[in-house]
Every structure is written in C-alpha cells, then in structure tokens.
Known about the structure:
By secondary structure, this protein is an alpha/beta fold. The protein is 35% helix and 28% strand. The chain has six helices and ten strands, in the order βββαβαββαββαβαβα. It has helices spanning 37-49, 63-73, 104-107, 127-139, 153-163, 176-190; strands at residues 6-11, 18-24, 27-34, 54-57, 79-81, 92-98, 109-112, 118-124, 144-147, 168-171. Strands 2-3-1-4-5 form a five-stranded mixed β-sheet. A five-stranded mixed β-sheet has the order 7-8-6-9-10, with helices on one face. Helix 5 (153-163) links the parallel strand 9 (144-147) and strand 10 (168-171). It is globular. The two termini are 28 Å apart.
Amino acid sequence: MPSVDTMFLFIAEGTAVERVDRKGPGGPLAYVWVPDADEAARVAAEQAAAGLGLLELYRGFGLAEAGKVIEAVAGRAPVGFAGDLGGVRHPRSITLYGDPGADPLTETVTVEHPHGARTTVAPAPDDDAMVAAALEAVESGADVVEICGGTSAATASRVHAAVGDRATVTLVRWPFESITPAAAYAAAFES
Length: 191
C-alpha cells in the first residue's frame, strides 16, 4: 500500500480492505475501509512505518478498536478519534473535512458497503458549505456526521445546531499523547 501523509480510517464490517486516494489539503490523503480492528491496526502500523503524518479514526471505531490502532501506530503519528458511539455500527455516515480549494461536486467519495451501509467523505470549502453538506446528508438518510479534527469546535457546533437530534454529530478529538504531534502537523500544514 503506497504511503500517504494523511489517512482517514473506517471500519466497515463484511468488506474487504478498500482504499481511495485523493490529494488532500496537506498532501496525499487516503480513505481506507477495513473489516475489523485487527486489520485497522495492521494498515495503520504499515502506514506509520512508511511515514504517515496524521491518522483520523471514523466510522465503526469504539474505544477498544481505537486502542488497538493507537498501540499499533506506537507514537509514530498522531491519532485522532471521532468518538465512541457505543460500538454501534451506523449504516449511513458522512465524514466532512475543511478544504478551501476543494470542489465538493467532484471530490466527494461515496462507498457502498454490504447490507446497505454507506459512507460518504466530502470536502467543504467553508463553514457554510460544511453545514449544508451535513444537512443534505442527514436528509438523505445519514445517521452520523463525523467532522475532521482540523475543523474548529465552533464550526462543529454550527453543524450540530443545524442537524439537531436527527443524527449524531462527532468531532475528531486528539488524546493527550497526540496533542503535540497533531499541533506540529497543523503548523506545518499552515506554512
């Protein structure tokens, strides 16, 4: 698997490893779906050894699954986590990240999983676009809106207010051991 600067990792039970490569705002970006936590840990360790700059865990990760990945990465890259949703596997989710230069019409990726599950990953060029994308996804059946760790809490709060109780909204958080390396990654990205 070619190395990337940033990886968004998802668990989609019943699926084979699936990867979509994109140009992200900070360099090469990969969205990777794996069937379980063991495969997630293997993929994350492989990418960390190859120089991964940042890893964010989304759909399907509870604390136990995230812990396996964090142990496998072994401090070689910061690992952010969208939140423990009680181990519940949500059938339809959207992951949103900010990218001022992105075109959501051409850069949005939707992957269909077994049993009718679906994950969409979409860039948002600004806060208003992020709110609009979240609302559109929820109106189309998404039950989880996951927001990238590079997004401000204020923006995530706007998304949450707009979505209300129609879907769960999460924002990637950085555990203590990832705060300093995530801040260094962000500083390099901003330069």
